[in-house]
């Protein structure tokens, strides 16, 4: 028996509709959007348009043509920061960020972009006033994760967005851990750029992602190449969305993403998020009783999602993860989770944590088995 509890990395399993949608496109469409005027190519283009419309509605984006398809959130974040920042610009981020955001920012810092990393508190949460104090006249962008992939803590996005807007700066939100489990309305929250993967909470396949761009944001392309339109031009087209999607689309993946978003819309993001939080709260209650267990993240359950990180006194998180997999068939993740500064912030560096991340399809039986397995491992002695 295999128990999958690593949904923060990639959600699994997917709704049956997702698998069916991927197979249907590969078997019955086959063609690529924008690469021909025949029926199958037009059908592919229609699917692309319908998915943009679905995503725009799902995220409260003002213009579906400014939904850019990428291959993952990392590409989306790179496009967002490289497409908006120039030498002399100032950008603010936090100490809780994933390397998918921090590494592009540190690369840009070497090219003349000024960078401020605002420290979060020990729970991994930002004080909006610290963001306000970090503002400069040259601040062009505030970039942060909606939810930490280490602690599950939810940042005060609305307050930070208002601060950024008043200062004339853009807000880039990394929704890798929030898209699909927290309601996100770009216009209501004041989000200028929204980056999200398709393969996590949106329940789509790997190799899918998006960047949603507000109408007032000027963006430069990250890649240049064939777009299926404006083929007579030597330079990359500047229009949305074609100018930002060079090369052939992952249409089977996008079809699966559309099916995943449809499932979420029908089920209700609040319903999905609440079940995942219930799972996380149950795990916290059970695991807190184990001797030597340290749980990270906000104490207030309203300020976190379902994933949780923990350490056991005298136990290596990597060894715990290995034992859970080898002896009990339970898949969790251990280590720094590509966010070393987050671990320095919460005090779990350099060993990192054991991260358990339930999903919509996780059962209470699986949670009980995970808790029992951890208790048994601890009782037998530190691995």
What does this structure look like?
With 383 residues, this protein is of the alpha/beta class. The chain has two domains: 3-12 and 268-380, Aspartate Aminotransferase, domain 1 (Alpha-Beta Complex); 16-267, Aspartate Aminotransferase, domain 2. The protein has twelve helices and 13 strands. The chain has helices at residues 16-28, 39-59, 73-82, 99-109, 128-134, 157-166, 186-189, 251-267, 269-287, 317-328, 340-346, 364-380, and strands at residues 3-4, 67-70, 90-94, 114-118, 139-145, 170-174, 193-197, 209-213, 293-295, 308-312, 330-331, 333-335, 353-356. It has a seven-stranded mixed β-sheet with strand order 2-8-7-6-5-3-4, with helices on both faces. Strands 9-10-13-12 form a four-stranded antiparallel β-sheet, with helices on one face. A two-stranded parallel sheet has the order 1-11. Strand 3, helix 4 and strand 4 form a beta-alpha-beta unit. The longest helix has 21 residues, at 39-59. The chain starts with a strand and ends with a helix. The model has no long low-confidence stretch (mean pLDDT 96).
Describe the main β-sheet briefly: 7 strands, mixed
On the 0 to 100 scale, the average pLDDT is 96
Number of strands: 13
What's the domain count?
A: 2
Helix count equals: 12
What percentage of amino acids are in beta strands? 5-15%
Question: Keyphrases for this structure?
Answer:
383 residues, alpha/beta, Aspartate Aminotransferase, domain 1, Aspartate Aminotransferase, domain 2, 2 domains, 7-stranded mixed beta sheet, 4-stranded antiparallel beta sheet, 14% strand, globular
